[in-house]
Amino acid sequence: MPATLIERFKRQELSVFNSAMETLVAARTAELRKELALVVAQKQELELALQRKNQGQSQLETALSDAQLLHEISAMLIDENSIGELYQKLVEAATVIMRSEFGSMQRYDPTKGALQLIAQHGLDEEAVAYWQWVKPGRATTCGKALEVGERVIVSDFEACEFISGSEDLIAFRKAGVRAAQSTPLLTRNGRLVGMITTHWTSKQLPSARDLRLLDIIARQAADLIERNISAEALRNQAERLLEADRYKDEFLATLAHELRNPLAPIKNGLTLLRIGKPEQAPRVVDMMERQLGHMVRLVDDLLDVSRISSGKVNLKHERVMLKAVIDIAVEASHPLIQANEHNFKLAIPEADVWLYADATRIAQIVSNLLHNAAKYTPVGGHIELAAEVAGGDVLIHVVDTGIGIPAAMLPQIFKLFAQVDGSAERSRGGLGVGLALSKQLAEMHRGRIDVVSGGDKLGSTFTLVLPIAQAPGAAVMSAAAAAHTPSDERSLRILIVDDNVDAAETLGALMEEVGHSICVVVDSTKALAGALNFVPDVVILDLGMPYLDGFAVARQLRSEPGLGGVYIAALSGWGTDDDRRRTREAGIDHHMVKPVKLVEIVDMLSLVSAGNAAIASPR
Ligand code: ADP
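# adenosine-5'-diphosphate complex -> structure
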């Protein structure tokens, strides 16, 4: 082969080789690039993983330090015993968590609707006094939180709309406070019991982590306050029970004493009547009547109190004249005033004053005040009953020159069984019931009783205040006034039905003394026959009788046409509103409670005899 041909052949081969080499190099380069990209991606992944690991570790470290902090707080709380110290520790824990310079805890007082400072950290005396009580609407974070019912954060007081220009802001500047947060303390069922606040000297916005930890402290604080509230309630209840128990013991001792007092002379009186000289009898009977009256008063008062407390007293409101009511009260208290040789003065308005009230109950209040005045005023003292109209009220003053009441006892004496003291020199008998009863009765009439006293031996003034009523038309007469209006009395035919022979016969004898005709039936099954035979104007009927009780007898009498106009009065040991309702339902016109005073029967008979029986309805 010629040399040129060989040369050409070699060049061709070389170029093929070159291009083959180039293809090879390009392919290898592409492969290497891919591998490089892979390595870069792997490197990035590794870097990311490393970063994540570092982050997790720092989160773990934060959580660990939070947990440690909370653990330390819990340990600290377990160590402390006094509730005040616990509050203090919680405030301090809150300031540590929030990295704040000041902190405070308040307790919510629902009666005042305000927050009271109970623990604080870092505030000076002036600030403590200034924010002792905070009401809703105050220009503070706690005032605002109380108003809106949720956490309030103010990062800069100088730029806060509801704080700017307020007196609180001036106080905040003085105390060096620039920012604060207040978190309401809520019980597990959402009741507000207090507030925890942290304050900073510079602008501040607490982080979510800080607030989360603070919420744990707030939970503990709310539980603590709630526990304390329950403990206080229990303590108060225990104290009240102890006091009630003490009152009960004192009351039982006084009751035994008060009941024994009249029993002894009554017992002696009975012996005297049996073995003594006949001429002594009237004096003995007077004494026994007085003592019995005293016992009846005690028992009546006790019954009234229990009936008022159980809401069983219904007032019989009517238009009554003040004078008529006062007359009844004065008449009832007169014997004691006279016995103590007191100078008694009565000064009531000339003009008619009308009340819309239960006359008997108002008379009971006034008579009780007069009775006390007489009881607690030494012999020969002065007692005055004066009434005056002021605005829409009448003021009935009972003034005495007696032993007086210490200022500290003035609010106490209206409590049931309360007496100024049990010392012998003050003791005048009584159960400590009268004023409690009078106060309740006055309040049931939309009135009240006030008392003032100069103190020991300086006398007392009790004032019954009652709303006055419009004067009625001329035709309206009060029951109380009517009961004291003289009537043209006539002799009545009275049938007494009572299985207690002694009671029936003595009552019959008394009625005969007053001039009435009497028929006594002791067997209730014969009452109807007796009535048909005797044709009475009035039947006085015992209720508790064997075989046929008083209710049944009344129904028999009422179903007999020939006895249509007969007036039936029940005599019973029971006097509740329910008993009175039952007697009314049986057709009985009047209900008297044993032991009945003769004057009550005589009054009732006078009204029947004067044809005024409708007014003598039972109270
Ligand atoms: P009682 O007189 O039966 O003890 P009250 O309820 O009527 O009960 O009175 C309560 C207490 O108030 C009395 O025990 C007495 O200590 C005091 N008190 C009431 N009235 C007077 C008064 N006019 N002067 C001085 N103390 C009085």
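# post-check
The radius of gyration is 47 Å.
The chain has 16 helices and 18 strands.
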